Amino acid sequence: MPKVRHWVAIPLALFAAALVLGLIAAHTSLTRSTELSWNSHIQQLRTGWLDRVTLDLANIASPVGGLVITVLIALFFLWRRKPVQACATFLVIAVGWNSSEIAKIIVARRRPPAVYSLAPETGSNSFPSGHTAFAFSLAVALCMLAIGTRWFRPAVVLGALWTVLIGFDRLYIGAHYPFDVLGSVLVSTSAIVFLTGLWHGWIAANLYRVPLLDRFGPVPGPAAVPETASVAG
Question: CB within 8 A of 19, min separation 6: which ones?
């Protein structure tokens, strides 16, 4: 996991910017007509087969689908006897993804009118998009794993396309506004940057305390803490 120098200031600034964007969008009329217009243009693309594809794609990035994917990735690294990578990857996805729930509670934006949605959702607030937060966090986690390898650039390109695809999917279905998608990237970025500071400052140095973790492979102890950055990267 890379080090970020200003791992407190940057997340605070990004999270604050996301909240300002969300609160303006949720509680004023400044953006609503524009966002509904954007949604309308995207939803004009609807056809039967594309409706089915987008709904299936939404299921992949849903809370259940996202949890399954996250756990499978962690189990894969445990199976490969790389427990540090398993923990780091799991945390990046989980923290970046679930940070969206904090912003949802604070902003409390209602979803777009259900009449425009292919699959109306009433279980949570609209800002930011949890599906997009998962997609972005997964992309960041895979890019971190690819740092220093020949797979880094392909991972960045594919991760960006994956995130855009899920964001588009949420607008196409009618479950979110455009600023919900943008807000999820800001919020998840803030959470992941903050996590990098915690990782290097405390988490990596204490992984050896996790029961049974060392049975899956080498886990650096207190004397080897300086090496954890390269192991987790």
Answer: 103, 106, 107
Half-sphere exposure of residue 181, counting CA atoms within 13 Å on the CB side?
21
d(CA 217, CA 1): 18
pLDDT tens figures, 87-108: 999 999 999 999 999 999 999 9
pTM for the whole structure: 0.91
The alpha carbon of residue 126 and the mean position of all alpha carbons in its chain are separated, in whole angstroms, by 15
Q: How far apart are CA 126 and CA 180, in angstroms?
A: 7
Question: At residue 154, what is the residue type?
Answer: P
Supply φ then ψ for residue 127, to 5 degrees: -110, 125
Kindly give, in sequence order, each residue whose CB lies less than 8 Å from that of residue 62, ignoring residues fewer than 6 positions away: 131
CA distance 153 to 101: 30
Q: Is 12 left (phi over 0), alpha (psi -120 to 50) or beta?
A: alpha
